Amino acid sequence: MGATIGIDLGTTNSCMATVEGGKTVVIPNAEGERTTPSVVAFSKEGERLVGNVACRQAAMNAGRTFASVKRHMGTDWRATVDGKKFTPQELSAMILRKMRQDAEAYLGTSVTDAVVTVPAYFNDMQRQATKDAGRIAGLHVLRIINEPTAAALAYGLDNGTPQKVMVYDLGGGTFDVSIIEIGEGVIEVLATAGDNHLGGDDFDERVADYLVQEFKRATGVDVRHDPAALQRVREAAREAKKDLSALASTRANLPFLAQGAAGPLHLDVEVTRSAFENMTCDLVERTTGPVQQALMDAGIAASELGQVLLVGGSTRMPAVQAHVRALTGKDPSSSINPDECVASGAAVQGSTLSNASMGIVPVGGDILLLDVIPLSLSIETVGGVATRLIERNTTLPVHYSQVFSTAAAFQTSVEVRVLQGERPMAKDNKTIGTFRLKGIKRAPAGVPQIEVTFDIDANGILTVSAKDLDTGKEQSITITDTERMSDDEIEAAMRDAEQYAAQDQVRRDGLAVREEAQRLLGEVGRALGTAGKHLDKEEKKAIKNDEAALRKLLAKRGDAAAAEDVAALRAAVEQLEQSSARARKLADS
Ligand code: AMP
Question: Would you state the pLDDT for residue 366?
Fold first, then answer.
């Protein structure tokens, strides 16, 4: 069995950690960074890029670069590249695969298992899609856990005083607030609320707008329609925003941003913290509603909170911390790096689960995680009404059955539409699956008794079963969920990802051997120039022949992408190395 890691698969950044010798350790990626941008791109040559390399080329390759894919998880959104469509889970799998490979290189062992976190807001399809992404990336997802639950674990609150805690998580693209109850060996999520379209990106956008306006005011040039310039402005805006978490004022400086009639134009704008706070105060204020909603759903007042935990890079902003303090009357804790604490908590949970599977249970017993269902589950009944079976904020796992009947006489099948959401009418909620229950005994309306059972496991994943109580037989249910990938599709995506990984390796090998060939040809050319007179005719001829053969292979393809081409090139390099060995040695001496 390989190592187990915890992964925070974020909207803007992802982070991974593991537990070593009882301590959580954040695993840096291959570039040495502790977080990896959740960005995937396809180069014009067909190479798949993930993380920082994908970010760097984003402005020049916008149509083939995909960021914030997490916003599309569990939907029918697709990315189209060269006529091929990619699901959100396939793109997320590319991020997870890079993380797994980077973790393997760092830990020096294979990584097989992972605990992956999702926002408490995620519905069933989004959780399932996240699990599928892990599978496509070659990971066994031990469990999907909510981000706030992971944060509480990272803070080690499971070992402390029983209390109620608020987790305020403002990341790059989502805002979640959760109220958690920590008891004896139990962490229970009492309530969650949030806004999955609010995060640091919105703050960046405000600063970027300000910089664009100031630049226009100073130079008369509007860079809004120049993608490359705009990308630079956005990066400068993000840096300025981060600076302002520590400084009262900063400057955004972008030389040669545009070309004016009289020459190049430079952006140089001062941004003060107070100007920044003025232009973003409505964004901070937007977190108030969800905070109050979560407290109300949990049935507690802010004064009953033991602690408030800050999660997500955007909680570094002083205005956000001040707002949380004003809302809760508590000094929020941010002693663990807010970008890393979710991944650390996932690692803690991963370690507990893998130890448990090996029969190792920590002293004091296993920690039980009780999460809640984020949105109510209903089925559609006569008149398009959403009849609720499970209320939002019900603790997981949950098992619930209810008996239904037919609406029309002699109906032999019924369609059960499963809905997620809080609205009273079916059409206003999200349909997450439809079940056709067939083979009902012909009977007048209202006579057949059909028991529908909802089971939600500890991962928050829903399974539905149905039983005809008249006959006592279990009925087969067809789930027609167009947005969920089938096992076959997942297998196909895994094969595709593996094939790409193999092709990328061949491409890298190809580049390496081509470089080596060029270096050797240069060396041989110089050797023939200086030592040619000391070589006999036959030897010279052999070198010339091998040199020509190698040049021919190099000219054959732009980039050696087939394994046979790489092998042929390597053989030709070796041949020329041998035949020219004496000449090169003579030239050296
Ligand atoms: P996360 O999704 O938790 O990684 O949060 C990433 C967000 O945090 C991005 O929008 C970052 O720009 C933002 N962020 C990171 N560091 C800081 C900082 N020092 N001040 C303000 N925002 C930050």
Answer: 47
Which residue shows structure tokens 């080690």? 156
| DSSP secondary structure letters along 144-180 | EEEHHHHHHHHTTGGGS--EEEEEEEE-SS-EEEEEE
Q: Write the pLDDT tens digit of every residue in 294-305.
A: 999 999 999 999
CA of residue 216 to ligand 1 center, whole Å:
27
Whether 560 shows a pLDDT value over 60: the answer reads: no
Minimal-distance CA residue to ligand 1 atom 19: 242
CA of 264 to the centre of ligand 1 (A): 32
Instruction: State how beta strands 111-118 and 3-8 pair.
Output: parallel
pLDDT, tens digit (0-9, with 9 covering 90-100), for 8-30: 999 999 999 999 988 999 999 99
Strand duo 307-311 + 163-170: pairing: parallel
* Nearest alpha carbon to residue 169 among 299, 339, 392, 371: 339
488 given a catalytic annotation:
no
Which of 339-343, 460-464, 518-522, 554-558: highest mean pLDDT? 339-343
Give the ranges where 113-264 is alpha helix by DSSP (H).
124-136, 147-154, 200-219, 227-243
**Residue 158: active-site member:** no
Mutate to test the pocket of ligand 1, among 197, 250, 314 (most ligand atoms within 8 A of CB): 314
Q: Which of 90, 132, 169, 546 is catalytic?
A: 169
Kindly give the interhelix angle for 341-357 and 147-154, rounded to the nearest 10 degrees: 80
Phi and psi at 105, nearest 5°, equal -65, -40
pLDDT reported for residue 511 = 78
Q: What percent of the chain has pLDDT over 70?
A: 91
Radius of gyration of the chain (CA): 30
Catalytic residue among 90, 124, 132, 147: 147
455 is catalytic: no
Model confidence pLDDT, tens digit, residues 272-329:
999 999 999 999 999 999 999 999 999 999 999 999 999 999 999 999 999 999 999 9
**How far is residue 572's CA from residue 316's CA, in Å, rounded to a whole number?**
57
Ligand 1 centroid from CA 313, angstroms: 3
The yes-or-no answer on residue 559 being catalytic is no
The dihedral formed by the CA atoms of 237, 239, 243 and 248, expressed in degrees to the nearest 10: -20
Report residues whose beta carbon is within 6 angstroms of any ligand 1 atom: 10, 12-13, 35, 171-172, 199-201, 238, 241-242, 245, 312-314, 316-317, 339
Residue 476: partners with Cβ closer than 8 Å, 6 or more residues away: 438
**Res. 171: pLDDT tops 80:** yes
Q: Which helix (H) or strand (E) holds 345?
A: helix 341-357
Higher pLDDT, 292 or 425: 292
Instruction: Determine the distance from the C-alpha atom of residue 155 to the mean position of all C-alpha atoms in its chain, rounded to a whole number.
Output: 23
